[in-house]
Amino acid sequence: MIIKPLEKPLTISKLETLLRRIDKNHPKRPQIEQDLAKRLAGYKGEQSMEYHLSFLDERKYYILHALRLQSSSNYCFQMDVLILTSTYFLIIEIKNIIGQVTFENHFAQFIRTLNGIEEGFYNPLDQVKKQNLRLYSFIESQKIKRPPIKSLVCFTNPQTIIRSDSRVKDSQSVLHAHNIFSKLEDFEHQTDTSIFTENELLKISRKLLKKHCEEDINILHRYGIRPEEIIKGVACPSCSYIPMNRKSGSWLCKVCNFKSKDGHISTLEDYRLLFGTNITHLELKEFLGLDSDSTTSKIIYSLGLKHCGSKYRRIYKLK
């Protein structure tokens, strides 16, 4: 049963918006593009994993994708996939990496070799060990019965070659994603003592879902970008040109002549992702590139935005 479905991460949406709204020659652009590419690769891997998990019996397996919890010490940790069963919980760390990967024992290294070039990555076996400890701690803080917690590292690209030093103890916890079904069958044969009833699993699932806290970073602060560097104006839904012009109650693109009645909606979504949900009358007017206060007021009214503060210091809440 899918308790928490996989959704596009908020940080990816923020990075995509930031790239739309900064100059093509901005010095921070290469770093932002690189970070976005890494996150998109991870998200693509999670989408692939979602397919493999779809074959599991939904009466036995309660699945939560990208669950992020806050520990008692206020430290947040995220698991790519958490599966709850009546006999154990399972953490799955997903890797979407091309080339050859090697788990080396002596220095506990994780090395990727591609086109003859070696590159070191954070060891995912260490990563899931720490997630395991944090999940145990969280479970105890919530007064949930403590089940065995297993962990796996799954590679979603079937062409990835996995190699391991013979001395790596946890190498049996590493596999290709297409083998997950067989692995879970093995787990089922190894553990047959139920700890939770179906009803208890459902309650725990809902409790975990309620405790989920999505990562919400200040994307401008992350890259040291000033608000005045953000390109303002309504983006054309057809060709992405900024800005569209406001004419006779519609938005018109001077490049492709596309006409839109509600082009401002996606632009205000860009504002929300970059600056947050609070916006004043003047900020909305300037970000949309409007000349008229009355037109700004009409758009605000049409959106039905909630507000707080006095008439002259009113702050609106973007949905």
Any overview of this molecule?
This protein is an alpha/beta fold and 319 residues long. It folds into two domains: 2-211, no CATH class; 232-317, Arc Repressor Mutant, subunit A (Orthogonal Bundle). The chain is built from nine helices and 16 strands. The protein has helices at 10-20, 29-53, 124-141, 180-190, 198-211, 219-223, 263-275, 281-288, 293-303; strands at 2-4, 62-70, 76-84, 89-95, 100-104, 109-114, 117-121, 149-155, 161-164, 174-176, 245-247, 250-252, 259-260, 278-280, 306-308, 315-317. Strands 1-2-3-4-8-10 form a six-stranded mixed beta sheet, sandwiched between helices. The chain has a four-stranded mixed beta sheet with strand order 7-6-5-9, with no helix packed on it. A three-stranded antiparallel beta sheet has the order 11-12-13, with no helix packed on it. Helix 1 packs antiparallel against helix 2. The longest helix has 25 residues, at 29-53. The relative contact order is 0.12. The mean pLDDT is 93.
